[in-house]
Amino acid sequence: MGNVPEAPLADPWLAYFAERGHRDVRRVGAGVEGVVYRLGEGRVAKVWSGRPPAEFELTREVYADLARHPLPFAVPEIFDVEHHEGVLVTYERELPGVSMRADSAQANYERKLPTRDSDALLAVLRGLASVPGTDAMRRLTVQGDDRPLWRDHDDFRDALAALVARAVTRHGAALARCVPDFAAGVERTQKALRSLPDAPVAAIHGDLVPPNIHIDAAGRPVAVLDFGFHTTAGDPAFEAAVTAAIWDMYGPHAAEHTEELTRLCAHELGYAPATLTTYQAAYALTTYDLFGLGDDDGHFRWCAEQLRRNAVFTA
């Protein structure tokens, strides 16, 4: 008779939450940050596995700012925070729906852009553009940088141009080896940023890839999650430009989808094509080194390709 594997130990957090009145608690997922438990009544609890992000309290404030504004879809909201035996536990809104799509790194997207997807993207972009940028959003630091984006700036365009300068200083030499006329392209992008017209300041998610948009059975967006990667306050045209570029980053029709979605945002949302192109160059210049350097990193390759065909960068 073979060895019988030992039964897994009981999860003590199930009992912990049950003792606090959550009778239907169950574990629903686990990731890098921790384990998530559904509590019922539209709430979940996250048991953090390590230290929370440095800007955790600021992020909580940003979530509260978003939740106070009426939106046609749900956004994250942290209701309560506690510590149990040195472990952080957050009580949060349970977000409905399912991911719009798997990430393009895991699944190829068909050439024809589904109307359902484009309609959902436009609905999310319109919704977020209706949320005024707040002081908490301005105090956020985008991933890879060492200071709040808006520090020492009163204008999003200037703040983004300064971010480009800092990002290029980090590892720009690696990008320059892959992108012709790199220094001049950086200068053209910064000049274009500072020449953009005045724009409203709204909430910027900054990472609206399909897995971060939840839809219902009819394809309507019902939740937007995972704020934080490039979340800030700024020109809603920046959000539209970035979303058009990153919706399909790695599929066989990625370049065509970027062009099609950029045209769609210009037509449906009224953004100038040159503004969208400028923001797409800025995004590539500020995120290129966040996961790796060189051709062995997909995001780095994608950023280099974006710049090589960007009309503002290569003008």
From TrEMBL:
What Pfam families is this protein classified in? APH
Q: Does the keyword ATP-binding apply?
A: no
Q: Which domain of life is it from?
A: Bacteria
Q: Which UniProt keywords apply?
A: Transferase
Record keyword Metal-binding present? no
Q: Which chain positions lie within coiled-coil regions? A: none
GO MF annotations in UniProt:
transferase activity
Report the residue ranges that make up the Aminoglycoside phosphotransferase domain in this protein. Answer: 24-249
Official protein name in the record? Aminoglycoside phosphotransferase
* UniProt source species: Kribbella flavida (strain DSM 17836 / JCM 10339 / NBRC 14399)
Q: What lineage is on file?
A: Bacteria, Bacillati, Actinomycetota, Actinomycetes, Propionibacteriales
